[in-house]
Structures are given as C-alpha cells and as structure tokens.
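Subject: mismatched residue count in predicted assembly?

I count 426 residues in my input, but I want to confirm that the predicted structure covers every chain. Input:
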Amino acid sequence: MGDGVTAARRSPGRPRKADAEQRILDAAIDEYLERGATGFTIDGVARRAGVGKSTVYLRWPDRDTLLVDSVLARSRAIEDVDTGALRDDLIALSANMLRFLLDPVGFATLRLTVEAVASRAAPQVATDVADRHRRAAGLVLTRAADRGELINPVTQARVIECLYGAITLKVLALGIEADTIGDVEIAAACTELVDMLLPLLLEHGQPPQDSAR
Amino acid sequence: MGDGVTAARRSPGRPRKADAEQRILDAAIDEYLERGATGFTIDGVARRAGVGKSTVYLRWPDRDTLLVDSVLARSRAIEDVDTGALRDDLIALSANMLRFLLDPVGFATLRLTVEAVASRAAPQVATDVADRHRRAAGLVLTRAADRGELINPVTQARVIECLYGAITLKVLALGIEADTIGDVEIAAACTELVDMLLPLLLEHGQPPQDSAR
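Triage response: the counts match. Full output below for your records.
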C-alpha cells in the first residue's frame, strides 16, 4: 500500500509518469467524493483521469488500494507541529485535526473507517490515518519531555484520545460545510480543550513553566 | 419523526397493528444491516416484514424516516443510569455508550451520522442519538449537583465530549466484532477514562467524598 506513490517520488526523471499518477489520484478523490465508496470504480477513475484502465492497474492492484492511497495522498497536512511549547503544539495539533476533518477529503478518511468497521473489513485507511495522527502527537510529547517537561506516561495516550475524540464529535455535530466554523472559532475551541486537558498530561498536574500564562 | 412508534404505543387495543409495526421496524434494521443505507428500500423492508408497501407508507412517509425510526427504536438502552454516586454513574454511562456502539445497530447510528454529514444531509439520527446520550449525562450531573457535589459549569459539556469522543475512537480502533472486547475490559477502559477526567468535572479539581476510594 502506498508503494505506487513512493515509487513515483523516487523517479524524478520520469515526469510524465508521475503526472499520470497525480492525475489518477486527483481523479480518484473526485470520483469518491461524487459517488461514495459504493460507486467508486477503477473504470470511472480512469475515464475521469483520461488514462487507460491498464495504466491505473499498473500502479494499483485494486480499487480499495487506489481509494485509500488517493485519500492518504491528500492527507499530508497533519504532521510537523513544532512551536517550541507543549501547550501551543497541542493547540496546533488539534486545530490541524479539526481542519483536516472539516475538509471533505479528510472527512472521507473518517467515513471510510466507519464503513470498514461496519462491514468488518480491515480499516486500512483508518489505521494509516489514525497512526499518523498519533505519531504527530507522540512527536510533540517526546519533544516536550526532551525539553524537561514532565509528561505523565500513564495518561498520555488517553489524553490524546480524549482530545482527538472530542474533535471528531465536534465535526459530527457541526457538519463539514466550510462556513460552519472559521479559523477564530477553531483556535478558540482547540485552546479550550487543550487548556482543560493539559494538566492531566503533566506529572502531578502542575502546568509547565512556558504555558502558565 | 418517531410518531408512528408513539402512536402504536398508545393503542393497546390494537395488538395486530402494533405487531406489524414492530415487524416492520425489525425488518428495517435487518435490511439496513445487510444492505447498508444505499441498498435500503421501503420495498425490501415490506417484503422482509411480510406486509404490503402501503402498510409501511401508512406509518412512514419515506425510507429515511423509517430507517432512522428503526435504528432509534433499537437504541433505547442508553438512559436511566443512577447508582447514587457520580463516579459510578459516569462509568456506567460510558460503558453503556461503549456497548451501544459495539452493537451493530448502535454502530449504525454512527454510520448514518457520518453518511449524513458527508452528504450534507440533516443528520436526524445523529441529532436524536447524540441528544439522548447528552441528556443521560446531563441527568447524572444534575443529580450529583443535587447531592451537593460541586460540578464545574464551565467544563462539564467539554468533559462529556471528551468521554464520549474517546469511546467513539476506541470503537473505531477495536471494530465491532462481539469478541474484541468483553465486559471486564469495557469496565476497565471506562473506569480509567472516568478516573482521569473526573477531577476536571469538579470545582477546584478535588475529588468528591464518595469516589475517593
């Protein structure tokens, strides 16, 4: 999974192929957003991308792999949060996740997850996206520990689950219309959540020096 | 919405009608679990219930109303938690929610919600089920306040959102196979979550007398 994408990235001398790949990934997203998982076919994607079916099959063995790859390819904007302070990192992290889910493509990862769970299929996209979110949080916490902040090893996974869980429910309540929530509300909602949960992350519950303002 | 069900309950002298209603609701659930929302039709439900289409249309104007009603009719086991202690109430409440979502019918409410959000439809079932969960939590907190426990009005909605959100993500990670999690693990997971979040619910963060064991 994802090997097609990686392979393409490693072939800078073949722009035409990489081009077709990007066109296919873009077409796959559009096809999914328009038709949902049930109406999603390799045929439809190939037609939309203006390539032959065999070009698609060269890179992706089946529709599920293509669907998951295309969603993942558009879900890059999660990682790499580093403001230098734990509180601000967590606010940025949760704002990223909220923005990610408010975007139809980001929301598609949640929808694919729920569909996979409902049909008892392996939720590949779920695992991949959830792993990426958790890894991003793990990096933030590791850096905080490196700076000398005392992260509670017992609570940390559970606090992140509460943070991401609350944000997921917020999106379900708000809907994904772009105008339901603006940047100011996103920042406010994430700050409230982080300020409430932060003491649970720290040993003995004291706030760290750099976020006690 | 839901009026068909209520009306039937008010007609104890007409068991045959109530019977057909229950058969239709049961058939609708089975039809949904087998075919998903896209394959769900009034026709299919009527055939499965062994009634005429007109019998279904007498009570439900369209397939969406029937789908939502049938899921809600099976989602009764959420409310009425009252152990006499806030901590135990919250543990029971979250265990109920976890069990609810692990059940395919309960999980269907989450799936319908996600599908409704994705297609920008009004997530009727979402609103109804979320309201019911929130009402149950509200009752628990009101009773705690009546007993003299100092509930923090600023954090309470957010804490419940974290609790329910973390449980929702847990189900997405576990899947809904009945054997992925037993009663002991459910109790343990919910106790851990509640014990972590409980101080945030209380004014000044002190644990209440009756839960400090």
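The first helix of chain A runs from residue 3 to 9. Marking this ticket as 'not a bug'.
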